[in-house]
C-alpha cells in the first residue's frame, strides 16, 4: 500500500519488506515501511523501518515453502491503510493471523497510527 503523508507530502510504501528473496511469498512478516522517491521511482533504503514484527510467543514460520496454513506462522498481510483526515496520521489496520491457531481462524485486529512529521 502507498500512502502520501498530508503533513510532509512524502510517499510511503507499506509491505512485507525483507533483505532477501522469498519463495512462495513467505514469510509475511515483519510489516515494514519505506519512503518512496517518485522522481527516481525507487525506495529510499535509509528510510526502511519495521512497523510490526513478531511479538514474543508468536508462532514463526516453519518453512519458506509452506504446505498448509499451519506452516506459515504469524502473518501481517491483508491490512487496510488510510489517512485520518482529522489527525493527518497514516493508519494501518491489520489482523494478527493467526492469534491462536489456523483451525480457530481468529485474530486480534491492530490499529497502528503513524505520524510523519518529517
Molecular structure report:
This protein has strands at residues 2-4, 11-15, 31-37, 42-43, 49-52, 80-83, 90-95, 109-114. The radius of gyration is 15 Å and the shape is globular. With 118 residues, it is an all-beta fold. The mean pLDDT is 85. 0% of the residues lie in helices and 31% in strands.
Quick recap:
Helix content is 0%, strand content 31%. It contains no helices and eight strands.
Unreliable sequence segments: none
Determine the number of helices (DSSP H or I, runs of at least 4 residues): 0
Number of strands: 8
Principal-axes shape call: globular
Q: Strand count, sense and closure of the main sheet?
A: 5 strands, antiparallel
Q: What is the helix content? A: under 10%
Residue-averaged pLDDT = 85
- The H-and-E topology, N to C, reads as EEEEEEEE
Strand content: 25-35%
Distance between the termini: 20 Å
Q: What is the C-alpha radius of gyration, as a whole number of Å?
A: 15 Å
Structure class: mainly beta
Core attributes:
single chain; 118 residues; mainly beta; 5-stranded antiparallel β-sheet; 3-stranded antiparallel β-sheet; 31% strand
Give the secondary structure arrangement, pairings included:
Layout: E1 2-4, E2 11-15, E3 31-37, E4 42-43, E5 49-52, E6 80-83, E7 90-95, E8 109-114
Antiparallel strand pairs: 1-2, 2-3, 3-4, 3-5, 6-7, 7-8
Amino acid at each position: 500500500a502507498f500512502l502520501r503523508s498530508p503533513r510532509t507530502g512524502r510517499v510511503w510504501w507499506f509491505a512485507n519488506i525483507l533483505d532477501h528473496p522469498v519463495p512462495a511469498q513467505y514469510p509475511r512478516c515483519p510489516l515494514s515501511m519505506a519512503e518512496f522517491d517518485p522522481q527516481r521511482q525507487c525506495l529510499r533504503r535509509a528510510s526502511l523501518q519495521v512497523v510490526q514484527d513478531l511479538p514474543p510467543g508468536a508462532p514463526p514460520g516453519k518453512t519458506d515453502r509452506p504446505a498448509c496454513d499451519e506452516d506459515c506462522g504469524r502473518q501481517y498481510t491483508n491490512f487496510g491503510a488510510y489517512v485520518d483526515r482529522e489527525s493527518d496520521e497514516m493508519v494501518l489496520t491489520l489482523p494478527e493471523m493467526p492469534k491462536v491457531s489456523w483451525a480457530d481462524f481468529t485474530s486480534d485486529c491492530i490499529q497502528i497510527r503513524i505520524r510523519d512529521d518529517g
